[in-house]
Design brief:
The chain is α/β, with parallel strands linked by helices. It has a single domain, classed as 3-Layer(aba) Sandwich (Cytidine Deaminase, domain 2). The chain has an 8-stranded mixed beta sheet. Helix 3 links the parallel strand 4 and strand 5. The longest helix is centred in the N-terminal third of the chain and has 14 residues. It starts with a strand and ends with a helix. About 35% of the residues are buried.
Length: about 150
């Protein structure tokens, strides 16, 4: 299960709307366990060539390094990737599967006509044959959690 605070889900969906009609993308950072808890995100520019950004994204090795550094600084783990599908369902494509890693969560937001509709999360099977949907639970806000400590 992937748990995400409501304000981070809104930021992910806003990222998809802002990138529209291209795909927007970034990283999910948090705490790994039976329930993966997203506690921070790192939106990044889509580094694909401009003519392919409407249906593809790419995150560079430098992007991965930046995400690992941010996760380390926050004492968190790199949990996965988020990206948007402009005018398409929030289901992984064959291209997504080709580039995915089995231990990551992949949150995909469907953005229809510039408006984020919904987000779902997926995990790639170890044999890379298919994605399985990962349940998403909306957790408490990061600010409320900080105040509770």
């Amino acid at each position: 299960m992937l748990e995400i605070p409501p304000e981070l889900l809104v930021k992910i969906q806003n990222n998809g709307e802002k990138a529209y009609p291209d795909e927007g993308a970034g990283f999910l950072l948090g705490m790994d366990g039976e329930t993966r808890r997203v506690l921070s995100i790192l939106p990044l520019p889509n580094s694909r060539e401009s003519e392919a950004r409407h249906n593809r994204f790419i995150l560079t090795p430098e992007d991965y390094m930046a995400a690992e550094k941010k996760a380390d600084a926050l004492k968190l783990t790199l949990l996965g990737v988020f990206h948007s599908h402009p005018d398409h369902p929030n289901q992984p494509s064959n291209y997504d599967r080709d580039w995915a890693q089995p231990f990551f969560s992949y949150m995909i937001t469907s953005v229809q006509n510039g408006q984020a509709i919904s987000s779902r999360s997926w995990r790639l099977l170890e044999d890379r044959s298919a994605f399985v949907e990962e349940p998403v639970r909306i957790g408490i806000s990061v600010e409320k959690e900080k105040k509770g400590r």
